[in-house]
């Protein structure tokens, strides 16, 4: 992320003066997929790619915003009826409105922003944008009166209320709470969280982007949620205390097998096992055991591919290729049906693996995958 680039554009598009500069990261999720809406755990970390924004109050009630990457300029007021049409500007507008609802006296400002979170690769560029502005507005207009948790909720509420996306809290949480050299285990039911050391010396973390997005993602996602709810409803007949699959064991699921469709059983089996895998990975990291971490990543991929059925040919191909190249851990990252695999690779195997992934993927699918190295980094902050 390049402060100088943002600053030069800010000076050029506004009155030649400078403001304060803020940044927030995108995120990866090492393990814990489709566990959030089942009351389980996720295990994200902030990365060294994200959004940078320069912001300066302008003494009016109008926000003047320039997207450096899209070369697009928008002005909007701060009342509910002032919502801009441009989808990127709605994120900034939404954050302003959510901060105002929480008692922050947001006034007009000039801003220019840019990002290096790859769009569509599942690293959460929108959460990085929301967290940047939530943190900045709290700093500039709120005298830091809103705590970090509420800042993450501001981003989530922006998605729900202004962008039409009914997302969980993980992306914004990771963007605000990120810490260099640590991953965060977030309990999606209680919102309690704990940092775990992630400093894999001798390994690299790399995303291989299949550059494919299959269309059925949203309808399939809703169907998976319904399967999980159906399994819980069946288990509740004998175990009334059960609220989510997080409360269930495989034994409970087995004893309700007759009342659950085969498909719903498979979906629930994946989730129950995945929630346990997150806990196993946390234990392994406390011992510095990255081999076990990698093994659990492969188990997750297998579960997402065969039990939850949210993988696709391209991702399975990349996962098999990683295994054949001796990569320590690999799995599809995100909701599935396209996007990236996340790979934990020994330094000495890295070059061979990447070369192989590019060559063999292109040979099979006629296009090259994109490759992103990521380093676990800090969350939302003021830079200048």
Protein topology:
Elements: H1 3-13, E1 20-29, E2 41-42, E3 44-57, E4 63-67, E5 72-76, H2 87-101, E6 109-115, H3 125-141, H4 148-162, H5 170-177, E7 182-187, E8 193-197, E9 203-213, H6 217-236, H7 250-255, H8 262-286, H9 290-307, H10 313-324, E10 329-333, E11 338-346, H11 347-365, E12 370-374, E13 381-382
Parallel strand pairs: 4-6
Antiparallel strand pairs: 1-3, 1-13, 2-7, 3-6, 4-5, 7-8, 9-11, 9-12, 10-11
Helix pairs in contact: 2-3, 2-4, 3-4, 3-5, 4-5, 6-8, 8-9, 10-11
Structure description:
- By secondary structure, the protein is α+β, with helices and mostly antiparallel strands.
- The chain has 2 domains: 3-197 and 378-382, Ribosomal Protein S5, domain 2 (2-Layer Sandwich), CATH 3.30.230.10; 203-374, Alpha-Beta Plaits (2-Layer Sandwich).
- It contains 11 helices and 13 strands.
- The chain has a 6-stranded mixed sheet, sandwiched between helices.
- A hairpin with a 4-residue loop joins strand 4 and strand 5.
- The mean pLDDT is 95.
**Second CATH tier, the architecture of the largest domain:** 2-Layer Sandwich
Shape: globular
Count up the domains.
Answer: 2
Mean pLDDT over the residues:
95
Tell me how many strands there are. 13
Descriptive terms for the model:
384 residues; alpha+beta; Ribosomal Protein S5, domain 2; 6-stranded mixed sheet; EC 2.7.1.6; galactose metabolism; Galactokinase; GalKase_N; nucleotide-binding
Offer a concise description of the structure.
This protein has 384 residues and is of the alpha+beta class. It has 11 helices and 13 strands.
